[in-house]
Amino acid sequence: MKIQFLGTGAAEGIPAMFCQCSLCRRAEKQKGRQIRTRCGAMINGRILIDLTPDIYLHKLRYGLDLSAVEAVVVTHSHSDHFDGAELTKRSTKDYCSIRQEKPLTVYGSETVCRLGRESLNLEFGLDRNPSLSFVPVKPYDTWETAGVRFTAVPACHDPKETCLIYMIEDGKHRILYANDTGLLSPEAFDFLKNTVFDMVSLDCTFGAGKAPSPGHMGMEENRLFLEELKKRGCLRQNTPVYATHFSHNCGMLHEQLEEEGRKYGIGIAWDGMCWPA
After folding, report:
1. pTM of the model
2. Rounded to an integer, what distance in angstroms lies between the CA atom of residue 108 and that of residue 79?
3. Can you tell me the distance from the alpha carbon of 269 to that of 241, in angstroms, rounded to the nearest whole number?
4. What is the pLDDT of residue 210?
5. Which among 1, 115, 214, 218 is least buried, having the fewest CB atoms inside 10 angstroms?
């Protein structure tokens, strides 16, 4: 399995679009790994995790063949993770040409599926399109797509909708992709018991220290999250852990985050990073 972190920033990105804070100005000047676009990932060149408003930039920056993508697996409906307007551009009747086309399947909560259909209706006046199909997902559902098995685990993020993180397996590797979320419920942690992960990716919106709100994490919550996984036999001694989904409000450049992460045994993901390297 190959996973590429297409974006590692929170909703506003780094530098934030309308911001004049010192971190955003420094990031804009230094560029490189300081630049963080909206959070999403690609698996094996065939599955997107989330469809961000930066997906066109990602296509250009990383040379992605988005016509080869068979599925989009969505964590939740917030606009930095699911951009319905970009989804409509997959219509081969209107916006693209794909030889031997198969419909792109979108997996997500009932809210995600509803908003996807609403986007189609706004764009085309219809809530259906032969280029797209929607599959509603509930917590603890399991399915396979493009040779990869996904299991939905309930996140702790927005109480107004079902938000999900994902266990992802291909028969050789198993990873936990865990953002946007705070600490999971005891039931969700217990569901993962004795499931050993080869890599873990954690929300770290608030950078060093403790998060001021429960729907995201900082490194202190990351530490507690990892302790819960260890208690349940989910981590090997050398399981790599990466933090992602950083907000400019954490006030830390990439190198500062790396220095802090070393105290917790956590690596810092950057835009374009691949695992395995």
Report:
1. 0.97
2. 14
3. 9
4. 85
5. 214
